[in-house]
Amino acid sequence: LTSDNGPWLSYGNHAGNTGGLREGKGTSFEGGVRVPCLMRWKGTIPAGSVCSQLAATIDVLPTVAQLCGAELPSRKIDGVDISSLLTNPGAKKSPRDHMAYYYHTNSLEAVRKDHWKLVFPHTHRTYKKNPPGQNGWPGAQPSDTIGLSLYDLRTDPGETLDLKSEFPKVVDELKTLADQYRKELGDELTGQPGSERRPAAQVP
User: Fold this and answer.
1) Helix, strand or coil for residue 157?
2) Fewest CB within a 10 Å sphere: which of 23, 32, 129, 185?
């Protein structure tokens, strides 16, 4: 049981909450993309265990394929096998060590490697400028902007303290990672088309 995005905070008492993470649905901040995931597999996943490692819903396909002995598609996919986290939720290292945060317009808004997250300048939805709605009616969702920012999610999951000046080497490393994503998947913010983008598959 999981979700594809964080809560729609403009709906107030119908919205849920992010537990202190920044912003919510429709943003690339942790409140918009970090969600709970509950799994139960008697005899395989230790009951009551907690896993805090990085994983994504795109990892479900390769994980299920591995567990049932199925072959993966011949075309490249972005998910990784995280079955090791199911059997050992306390693992200190995930098979996934980085993640790209794309908005639906194919804009690369942030990249993460381990506990470091680099956010690129962009305009985003914000829930911080207006009171939320109530009883099923949404409040306003104005826009805000952010400049280049580096966050240590290990100590600052709320993304409140920009550390780019203190860790320039980390910024450079994450910029290199972002450039690789842009080369392959494109980025509307920088006008790069992406060498590996292709139309979605269609079922006759």
Assistant:
1) coil
2) 129
Helices and strands per DSSP (H, E), number in the chain: 4, 6
Two tokens at 110?
């942030």
What is d(CA 9, CA 180) in angstroms, rounded to the nearest whole number?
A: 33
Among 190, 138, 187, smallest CA distance to 24 is for 138
Question: Residue 59 burial (CB < 10 Å; 0-12/13-18/19+)?
Answer: buried
- As to burial, measured by CB atoms within 10 angstroms (0-12 exposed, 13-18 middle, 19+ buried), residue 109 is buried
> pLDDT for 134-149, tens place per residue?
999 999 989 999 999 9
**pTM of the complete model:** 0.93
* Tens digits of residue pLDDT in 90-111: 888 899 999 999 998 899 999 9
In contact, 25 and 6? CB cutoff 8 Å: yes
Q: Are the C-beta atoms of residues 159 and 22 closer than 8 Å to each other?
A: yes
**Alpha carbon distances (Å) from 1 to 35, 40, 83:** 10, 9, 16
Query: At which residue do the structure tokens 């979605």 appear?
Result: 200
- The stretches of the chain forming alpha helices (DSSP H) are 30-33, 60-68, 83-87, 168-185
